[in-house]
Design goal:
By secondary structure, this protein is of the alpha/beta class. It folds into 2 domains: 124 residues, 3-Layer(aba) Sandwich (Rossmann fold), CATH 3.40.50.720; 143 residues, Dihydrodipicolinate Reductase, domain 2 (2-Layer Sandwich), CATH 3.30.360. It has 9 helices and 14 strands. The strands form 2 sheets. An 8-stranded mixed beta sheet has the order 8-9-10-7-11-12-13-14, covered by helices on one side. A 6-stranded parallel beta sheet has the order 3-2-1-4-5-6, with helices on both faces. The chain is globular and about 65 Å long. The two termini are 27 Å apart. It holds the Pfam family GFO_IDH_MocA_C3. This is Gfo/Idh/MocA family oxidoreductase. GO terms for molecular function: nucleotide binding; oxidoreductase activity.
Length: 339
């Protein structure tokens, strides 16, 4: 593959704009196309990112079928992820799909099966996986400096001052704290302590029927526990701490964009390690996807598809425990021949 990676973006909302901005900080990345359900929205997006009108489309399908696009970034609302990913894969495109990867594990299995059958690259856009701060935490854990890691604690919450029609509270748009925020501590806990063996969850369900606060405790297959929480009603510290028998390492301020990490040991010593954070952070996942494409990989070793499937299964279990249901849970895809 050429050094240049040509990106198509599906969706023109806030997160799609953040990703398009990040492509400016991504070596070798070129924004080649954008698609929206409305042509005026696509043209406005294109104007903001110096895209010619011919590269702006009034449908998602045109991006999926565009000849000059190598990989499609899916930044549409949660319930559209599976449908859009399947559409892009059927168009022969590699896919970087925003979190949550799909609404449930069943949908995720459909998407992964299609990518594997077509031998196309597919990756979940769990951007925290690719941050330098996370790499440094894993390096410290591997060095044995804090001893055997036994516990992760992580929270992610902010106050959402929005009306009930906003996507954060709207069940038709996959609203709720768990899928929007809780997925971050879940994913990074599994990345640091290993596969999840079991989970126990509690939640507060809001007036629209989605969770506004959820807490869950994970037991990991290799030993250790994680205590995680998410909220769209409380501004939490959004920190992450990994503790072992010799000390702990903390991702400071907001762990998903940590400017530094701190190490504290039982002997009383401590230090702070600055960690780089370029642009808005999304460039790191674009770099990883581009690297995988150039090396001919079909999935990223940092976010393997089997792990994406496993974590979607954990989210399904949490939702079952807290009574959180979406329309996608009752929907049925067409039979395998349609895939």
């Amino acid at each position: 593959m050429a050094d240049e990676v040509r990106w198509g973006i599906i969706g023109t909302g806030k997160i799609a704009r953040a990703f398009a901005t990040a492509l400016k900080d991504t070596p070798g990345a070129v924004l080649a196309a954008v698609g929206s359900r409305r042509m005026d929205s696509a043209l406005a997006f294109g104007a903001d990112f110096a895209l010619p009108d011919r590269a702006c489309f009034g449908s998602y399908e045109e991006v999926a079928n565009a000849m000059d696009v190598d990989i499609v970034y899916i930044g549409t609302p949660h319930p559209m992820h599976a449908e859009n990913a399947i559409m892009a894969l059927k168009g022969g495109k590699a896919v970087l799909c925003e979190k949550p990867f799909t609404m449930n594990k069943r949908e995720a299995e459909q998407v992964v099966a299609l990518a594997r059958s077509k031998k196309l690259f597919l990756m979940e856009a769990m951007w925290t996986r690719y941050l330098p701060a996370v790499d440094e935490v894993r390096r410290i854990i591997a060095s044995g400096e804090i001893g055997k890691p036994r516990q992760v604690s992580a929270d992610f919450g902010f106050t959402a001052a929005v009306d009930n029609d906003h996507r954060l509270l709207n069940p038709e748009l996959g609203g709720g704290a768990l899928l929007d925020l809780g997925i971050y501590p879940l994913s990074i806990a599994a990345y640091l302590l290993g596969p999840v063996a079991s989970v126990q969850a509690q939640a507060e369900i809001g007036a629209t029927g989605v969770d506004v606060q959820t807490g869950f405790v994970l037991k990991h297959e290799g030993g250790g526990m994680s205590v995680c929480s998410c909220s769209i009603q409380a501004r939490t510290p959004a920190e992450l701490t990994v503790s072992g028998d010799l000390g702990h390492v903390r991702m400071n301020t907001m762990f998903h964009r940590a400017p530094s990490i701190s190490v504290s040991l039982v002997d009383g010593t401590s230090r702070t390690v600055p960690t780089p954070y370029a642009g808005n952070g999304y460039a790191y996942e674009a770099v990883e996807a581009g690297r995988c494409l150039k090396e001919g990989l079909l999935e990223s070793p940092r976010m393997p598809l089997d792990e994406t499937l496993a974590l979607m299964g954990v989210l399904d279990t949490i939702r079952e425990q807290i009574g959180l249901r979406y329309a996608a849970d009752a929907a049925r895809w067409a039979d395998g021949a349609d895939i």
